[in-house]
Design brief:
Length: 107
């Protein structure tokens, strides 16, 4: 998978209201720059357990250009970073699975 085909998080659609107890029951939408291919979706769904019950009420849904999550905590920079790292991890898994090896730096 060429690097330009990686999936990138371009933003979040955060629920307007959150409950005062720090827990959310509203869907958080993670917006992607392009729709993932079947291989990326399969890797995502296989690894989604790593997000775990400590972070999510239920498994995320991958729909076109969106990942829909039901987080257990309010949206914070830490949660956004966790989600971005997870998407980047899936990119690396798919990239390395295709046998391309790690990206080389051109000097």
């Amino acid at each position: 998978m060429p690097i330009r085909q990686f999936i990138h998080v371009v933003g979040f659609e955060v629920p307007a209201a959150s409950r005062g107890d720090g827990q959310s029951r509203d869907t958080l939408i993670v917006m992607l720059d392009k729709a993932p291919n079947e291989e990326w979706c399969a890797a995502f769904m296989k690894s989604v357990a790593e997000l775990g019950p400590a972070l999510l009420h239920e498994p995320p849904q991958l729909l076109g250009l969106e990942i829909r999550l039901l987080p257990k905590r309010a949206m914070t920079r830490a949660l956004a970073s966790d989600i971005r790292r997870f998407v980047d991890k899936i990119n690396r898994q798919v990239f390395l699975k295709e046998g391309a090896g790690p990206p080389r730096l051109l000097l």
